[in-house]
Amino acid sequence: MKFTSVLVANRGEIALRVMRACKELGLRTVAVYSEPDRDAPHVAYADAAYLLGPEPAPGAGVPRPYLDMDRIIAVAQQAGAGAIHPGYGFLSENAAFAEACEEAGLVFIGPPADAMRRMGGKTAARQEAQAAGVPIVPGTLEPVPHAAKVRALGEVYGYPIAIKAVGGGGGRGLRVVQAAADAEAAFDAARREAEAAFGNPLLYVEKYFTDPRHIEVQVLADMHGAVVALGERDCSVQRRHQKLIEECPAPGLSPEQRRAMGEAAVALCHQVGYVGAGTLEFMYEGGAFYFLEMNTRIQVEHTVTEMVTGIDLVQAQIRVAQGEPLWFGQADVRWSGHAIQCRINAEDPAHQFRPALGTIGAYREPAGFGVRVDSGVGAGHRIPPHYDSLLAKLVVWAESREAALARMRRALADFTIEGVRTVLPFHQLALAHPAFAAGGVSVHFIPRHLGAQLAALEHHGQASLPDQEDDAQPRLFDVEVNGRRFAVRVNERGGQQHVARPARKARSTRAAVDAKSIASPIQGTVVRALCVVGQEVEAGQVLFVVEAMKMENEVQAPQSGVIGEVLAQPGQIVNAGAALATFQ
């Protein structure tokens, strides 16, 4: 069970995070990478690196590089690795991959395949929670076969209800149904997205809480039957049902509520024989909590738990995988201070957080006491359209929540990312809002408190950067006038364009700005074309669905009219601004 070399089957900041933990434990690291990631930081940092292959064209029928189990295992054997750490996403919750590693004589740094199956599938996890006496969100315990069943369940539970992916989380494959008439379109979209994200189209249905908080409990278990709860995190600030801000501990919980959630998490882990790091997610409303799902892996927000407990969770994963018993018990867990994490994504908050591609120009991370940045990018990094939009995680710690808020505001102001749109302006707005400062906001914080302010970002700060395919490349200069220093931005014309070249693109690479064009707002892959030549459409009607950075984006008709020409079809890669269709 002992190993001296670890292959990290992931990319970006989590690959670097795992490699640093390995090196501190004296372990050799092996990176894998796709063709778009050839120059990525995790490739240069590892002791050895191996190419997995190119990203295939949509519909090519071959596995994507980071999902190619056979290739990754073959590389691990070729590189002499004794273990594989999957990070999060990709193959991290794939029980078949865990079994394949074991069959190949490799240690999978994660839970046993059996525990992963029992808790990784959302309906199976709900059954296990019910058996362990843990309260669950009202909903189905088996997959739902069709939209008609969704409508029937809406009558049982009352609207709104949520359609969710059995095989994964992170907001992918999730659709909220407000009325029976919406069920079919929501079911089809959720199934398509779930299959694309997790390779599993199965869906289930839950009651959708109207104003909950999202609270989760971090657990750690060894191979000898010991399980500890390391406390809870508040992850309620979300967009598209995906987290943007996380903090530990969760504001406003009583000691009794905190203890009850921890005990429920530990009981469920004992129920399924869990081993390693994991997170149990709960919906919290009206003073009561309900089990939602379990993430059988390390999570993006593990950092805030580390900062408050002083426990390196990634090193703990590795030590547990080597058979070491937990070196502390529940009574030994101590919390100190407060930690907050802001996810720094390449997204445009002024336009519903749509993905933003491009090449990073100037890049400067904040520093100072209590500030941590886990990043997978740097100056000159070109953001590929194939992967998640996460660029970096900004984490702060302080002795109190108020001090942590002040430190985070300062750190956000010190963070510079030029050349691409990011969510930095959103975080500055969120941290400055009185509702967030008071603590205990619900999952509806963004639409309820920041809608108008986010729209105003169109004319402010980073959201005013040139379009991704414009030939204007911003450059920064420092100048001095009368002994005073100024920073000046200059848009250079004719400079090199940093735009990913699509394998197939629409006939028009950039839409004319006129009333006859229906343009793609982003670079991505067309997954649905919902209009035909001669069709009468209404303003706001969804005409295309374009996927980028693992998110589906609906393209709506800018006006009413009749479709004159359809220029893009499913499977086609289009640039930002490409004409998808025209009006007559």
Verbal overview:
With 584 residues, the protein is an alpha+beta fold. Helix content is 27%, strand content 30%. The protein contains 15 helices and 32 strands. Strands 13-12-9-10-11-14-21-19 form an eight-stranded antiparallel sheet. α7 crosses α8. It is globular and about 70 Å long. The termini are far apart. About 6% of the residues have low confidence.
Please outline what is shown here:
It contains 15 helices and 32 strands. It is α+β, with helices and mostly antiparallel strands and 584 residues long. A hairpin with a 2-residue loop joins strand 28 and strand 29.
What are its keywords?
single chain; 584 residues; alpha+beta; 8-stranded antiparallel β-sheet; 5-stranded parallel β-sheet; 15 helices; 27% helix; 30% strand
Number of strands: 32
Q: Count the helices. How many?
A: 15
Evaluate the radius of gyration: 24 Å
Overall shape: it is globular
Percent of residues in helical segments?
25-40%
